[in-house]
Amino acid sequence: MRIGLIGAGAVAKYHVEAALALPGARFTAICDLDESAAARAAKDVEGVQFFTDYRALVESDDVDAVIVNTPHALHLPMAIDAARAGKHVLVEKPMATSLADCDLMQEETAAAGVKLAVGHIQHFLPDKVAARALLEQGELGEVVMIRDQRSTDYRPGTRPEWFFSRPIAGGGALINIGGHCLDRALWFGGAPAVEVSASVAQRFGVPVETDGTIALRLANGVGVTIAVVSDPPARSDLLAIVCERGVIEADPRVGTLVRVDGHTRVVRDPDAGDIQQAFTAQLADFLGVIDGDAPAVPLEHARHVVELVLASYESAAAQRSLQIPLRAEVPA
C-alpha cells in the first residue's frame, strides 16, 4: 500500500516512520505548503515525491492511500478529494469540526468505494493498551468512574497560529487536547455519553478557550471528569480508571500502574519508543481496515467524540448540562 501524507506538522515524522516500518506499506509522497517542513519529515527517505498542493498528491498514480494530518477544518475537503480520486483515507482526530461534516465524510468515502479510518492515537499508546488488557482480565471488576487530567499550553507563540483560529481549528484546548480525553474516557468507560456539563476559560488574550472541564454521564452509569489546563506548574497526562476492586493509572511518562487492596504494582514501564510504536500500530490497523478488517476505532465512536466536544461548547455557553445526542447540524 503506497502511502501519501498531507501535512508535515508535529507528528508527521511518526507517520513516515510507521510507513517505513511496516512490510505492507511504502511511503511514496508528502505534501505541505512549507516545502522545507516536508523535506524534514521525509529526510533520508528515497523515492518520495514532494507536493505543495494536496490535490496533486491525491491524484498521483503513486499513491493508494492518504493520511490527512492538517488543520481540523481541512479534514473534510481533503478526505473528499482523496476519496473521489480513489484513495483510502486515514484522517487525524478530530474527525471533523461538525457532525454534518463527519456524516458527509462517511457518505463520500462509502460512495467512492474507499475505506475511511480516524486516527485516535490513544487506542494504540502502550500504556493505554496495557490498561485495557488489565481490565479485560477481569481482576478489577467493572469500571465505575474515570478521572482524566491533561495539561497543555495555549499561550501565544507556543503552537502554530491556526490552533488559535476557531473557524480553522473548530475551537481551542477542548477540541484539541480534550478530544484525546473524551476518546479514551469513552473507550475505557464502555458506553456512549448521555449527558455532558462543561465550563471553559479563555486566557492569554487568545480567541479560543485555553482551559476547560467536562463532566460526562455514560449510558451505563459511569461518571467521567476531565480537566484540561494550560501552562500549569507541572505537566500532567494522567488517566485514572476506578474499578470495583482497584484503580488503574495510565500515564505515558510514568507507565501503567494498578492499586488493589492497599498494594501497588507496575503493569508496564514507559519506553522511549512508545509514541512511535503507537503510530506504527495505528497505521497497521488502517492497512487492516483497507483489507476488510474492523477498525480499532469505529467511525461512530470518532463521530461521538466530535459530538461531545460540540456539546461541551454548548453546555459551557448555556451554563447548564445537556442531554445527548445533539442535532446533526450544530456547528463547531
UniProtKB/TrEMBL annotation:
List residues of the GFO/IDH/MocA-like oxidoreductase domain.
130-249
Gene3D superfamilies noted in UniProt: Dihydrodipicolinate Reductase, domain 2, NAD(P)-binding Rossmann-like Domain
Q: Decide whether keyword Lipid metabolism is in the record.
A: no
Name the keywords, alphabetized. NAD, Oxidoreductase
InterPro entries the record matches: Gfo/Idh/MocA-like_OxRdtase_N, Gfo/Idh/MocA_oxidrdct_glycsds, GFO_IDH_MocA-like_dom, NAD(P)-bd_dom_sf
Q: Which Pfam families match?
A: GFO_IDH_MocA (PF01408), GFO_IDH_MocA_C3 (PF22725)
Judging by the UniProt lineage, the source's domain of life is Bacteria
Question: Under the GO molecular function aspect, what terms does this record hold?
Answer: nucleotide binding; oxidoreductase activity
Q: Does this UniProt record's set of keywords contain Oxidoreductase?
A: yes
Taking every annotated instance into account, which residue ranges of this chain make up the domain Gfo/Idh/MocA-like oxidoreductase N-terminal? 1-120
Protein name (Swiss-Prot/TrEMBL) = Dehydrogenase
State the organism named in the record. Microbacterium keratanolyticum
Lineage of the species this protein comes from: Bacteria, Bacillati, Actinomycetota, Actinomycetes, Micrococcales
